[in-house]
UniProtKB/TrEMBL annotation:
It comes from the Bacteria. The keyword Lipid metabolism applies. CDD domains: crotonase-like. It comes from Mycolicibacillus koreensis. Gene3D superfamilies: 2-enoyl-CoA Hydratase, Chain A, domain 1 (3.90.226.10). This is Enoyl-CoA hydratase. It holds the Pfam family ECH_1. Residues 282-301 are annotated as: Disordered.
Amino acid sequence: MTAEPVTDLVTYETLEDGRIARIWLNRPETHNAQTRTLLVALDEAFTRAEADDTVRVVILAARGRNFSAGHDLGSEAALAERRPGPGQHRTFTTHGGTRSGVAEKTYLQEWHFYFENTRRWRDLRKITIAAVQGNVISAGLMLMWACDLIVAADDARFSDVVGVRLGMPGVEYYAHPWEFGPRKAKELLLTGDSIDADEAHRLGMVSKVFPVDDLAENTLAFARRISELPTMASLLIKDSVNAAADAMGFTEALRHGFHIHELGHAHWSAANDNRFPVALPPEVPDWRTAGPTQLARRDRP
């Protein structure tokens, strides 16, 4: 086994003579809440596994009690990434006067960091397995749903609480109706309730449920079985199933869901008078106001 950090937020290791790569979310002290820096490191880890011809299966796992508490909205690291808010640097002149660019900035940033990243991971040229434990909340669902297969510890619980907390229709990668089913998706989003691992298994969202203490070992054994299949055969299966979902409207539904999510942001921003932090430490790049060229760079923080 070889292991090395991508950053201190994400670690990468290879097992089984390199046939299996395991990526760890490594912010247990914040329950693996996702800063943008973490997401960039995660994308680099997925890209590394994709480029390695020896790797056949990629496991996405997380250190600590919880897989992910979702977007990091409150830590110093996350606030530094977001200062100043998206409407603070640019205004737009319209027939009605000058207005801030809150909606436009939020749209650009979330399309890149959340939506496009997740869609790209869904189509990664490897078979991917999410191994989840504890709470999987809101944006934690997005990371898990991007994977081909999901295995869960018996203590796992799944929820998207952005509706009841922020008045939003759900997170940016809106796979809820496909993963939960339409009526269950409505119930969970309208109430903020969660489902446990057994119910997720009954719904077909989770493939296997393991005792929490055996999650890592049993996930590796599961991945080992899949890694024995020739790479081309695995990818043909993956592409065939993904194409069937896309033919049923999955990709278009994701796009529509993202646009509705951004409409929710615009409404929230207007209702809250566009209040965002305004101070930016000089050493912190302002990626909230970065243009498309900067966002495309691999060395962004």
